[in-house]
Amino acid sequence: MTKQKVGVLVMSYGTPESMDQIEAYYTHIRRGKPPEPEQLQDLIDRYEAIVGGFFPLRKNTDRQVEEIEKTLNHQDSSYEFVCYQGLKHAHPYIENGVTKMVEDGITKAVGVVLAPHYSIMSVGSYIKRAQEKANELGLEIHFVKNYHLHSKLIDALSERVDNALQKFDGVNKNEVRVLFTAHSLPEKILEMKDPYPSQLLETSKAIAEKSDITNWQFAWQSAGQTAMPWLGPDILEVLKNIKEEENVQNVLVCPIGFVSDHLEILYDIDIECLQVARELGMHLERTKSLNTDHRYMETVAEVVIANLDKD
Fold first, then answer.
1. What is the tens place of the pLDDT at every residue in 38-70?
2. pTM (two decimals)
3. Where is the signal peptide (predicted)?
4. Where exactly does CATH 3.40.50.1400 map onto the chain?
5. 28 annotated as belonging to a binding site for a ligand
6. SS3 per-residue string spanning the chain
7. 25 is in an annotated binding site
């Protein structure tokens, strides 16, 4: 008996694949408005700073999608799962992924974003685009909205905190300030009663409890350069404040809002934050990214399967 194929639209932000794609990518983020020359150069410089323009997010995302497909087919043998990528700001776009599923004869699908926390401005916008295209093409598709408290996700992140704390030789773990971080969003989400900030705090608390740490706080990072205010305080500001006001010497950054190594990790934390910490005389480390950790792959697979037959 032939198994029914289920399409899994794995969505993420996207990144250029090469240096010459940066301007088109940035223009798409800016809704078709080309960046100013200095803005474009700043982004190019950031990519150049990461091992001479290495583009880790695209490769990491490709590997994650491959591993999610393998994990799904291992966990549930009643269907044949086929994963498709849908990127927000690069090819293949979300709409391309939905179209490809229909072209391949998929009639049943689930969409999931490589981001555990829901915001109408992030995960919600991915879902909206995918649903609109699916409606247009007559495809039945269900969506995973969040999975920020999945036990395997918390286990994987807690283990990373525990391992990274070992890098502070001779320091009691509760003398290390753990900063949980995620990508900032415009402040207007607060007026919308958006669940994003509260879900991030829930994840932070779950990890802290699992790792038995009490010395932690939350900080935002990687805010956009726009006229509207973004959620804060920013991690760079937090580093300065905790050093000046509390004389914190040791800091561990755990970027719970990101699931793979990319610009916001390899530049914003590993270069920018580290430089500020050094200037302040602080010892700063960060937890390893999830990337293709089997527990994260299992988390995504399990929430996809759980959403298969929802009405």
1. 888 998 888 888 866 556 668 889 999 999 999
2. 0.95
3. none
4. 4-147+293-306, 151-286
5. no
6. CCCEEEEEEEEECCCCCCHHHHHHHHHHHCCCCCCCHHHHHHHHHHHHHCCCCCCHHHHHHHHHHHHHHHHHHHHCCCEEEEEEEEECCCCCEHHHHHHHHHHCCCCEEEEEECCCCCCCCCHHHHHHHHHHHHHHHCCEEEECCCCCCCHHHHHHHHHHHHHHHCCCCCCCHHHCEEEEEEECCEHHHHCCCCCHHHHHHHHHHHHHHHHCCCCEEEEEECCCCCCCCECCCEHHHHHHHHHHHHCCCEEEEECCCCCCCCHHHHCHHHHHHHHHHHHCCCEEEECCCCCCCHHHHHHHHHHHHHCCCCC
7. no
